[in-house]
Design brief:
It is built from four helices and 17 strands. It is of the alpha+beta class and about 400 residues long. The protein has two domains: about 200 residues, no CATH class; about 180 residues, Jelly Rolls (Sandwich). Strands 8, 9, 10, 12, 13 and 16 form a six-stranded antiparallel sheet that branches. The chain has a four-stranded antiparallel sheet with strand order 1-6-3-4, with no helix packed on it. The radius of gyration is 22 Å and the shape is globular.
Length: about 400
Amino acid sequence: MADDASRAFVEAVAEAEQLIRNPPFEISEQELAEGLDYLAGSIRSSLQMAFDYDLDHPVLINPTHQYARQGLDNPDAVYFNAYLTEGASYLLTGRRGSTVDLSFQIMDGTYSAAGAPNTLAAFDDRQLEIGDDGCFEWRFGPELGLTKGATLIVREVYDDWVREERGTLRLQRLDTAGVPRGPAEVDRVAKRYGVAAKMLIGRIKTWFAFPEWFTYTEPVNTLTVPKSTPGGLASQFSSLGHYELAGPDAPGGEQALVITVPACDAAPYQAIQIGSRWYVSTDYEHHQTSLAKAQSQIDPDGQIRYVVCESDPGLANWLETTGHRRGVMMLRWQRLSRDLTAADGPRVEVVPFADLAAHLPYPEAGRVTPADYATRIEARQVGVARRMIS
């Protein structure tokens, strides 16, 4: 039997497992297994967020990664979160790495099943003064209208997973600098278990609700016109959708989704990913379930043509469905120099897998052999390992 300190969290784990086993959508045996894995990551992240929570001495937490996925997490991003409070002043310092984008967002709360919080500030490092040594600082505080529960989110985003290098970051609350933290107390630890319990249930319910507001309102096998991401970073544009495709064993034959989108010169970062019914990324480390522009084959006409399907079409721009007949899709553009229009957005076509070549104007431009593809997967494994954060 659990003791009183952890009882609330133990009960929350059992409740969360029932939510996973009985979601508001149909799941296969594979998706149940993935859901239980998603639960494990959510348990881990909820404990981390609750026990690292410190308004007096805030720290940057990495709660979202390949072992703790949530909210259709971006495979190209390293995420950092910190909790803020009213009346306090902060100093964020760092050294800019060579990643394609580094962006900052402050919200007046956290995502919940009731909706997304309001954004108090959102910008990228182009608005910072960065020294010749790559170092920068940002001072902020009450002038932003901070309240208790405000959240800082930093996203460091890769285009080239292998060549780009991550920078460094540190957050300090200025008025508590030099003040030591008090001793551990049983009541405080018990309270943190209670906070973790609420976070865990809230996290599961939030990401059940979120795609219903935005993604599943669209017709299947379509993608939206690019627009500012709902509830996300204000400086990011995105296109959302969901797919449903016949697999290799379907009576009428396998289907493929061809997504055509212009390579955008106005966006140093442009990418696509597919995700599961749990509204999380699928395995992007060992499978090609996402592609940034640097990883993509751009055709001679300036278009990028992605192929979403289960079977290997022998193409560089294949996005593996990894056994998911249904899933979600998202395209992102960041560090934009202009707003995007419908002309910058994707076009989608469902085609028979057997006739795929007839629907690609340059079918030989992106051909890869099984050995080539294995090399691409190895590069993904190396790229994720180099981030050294989990």
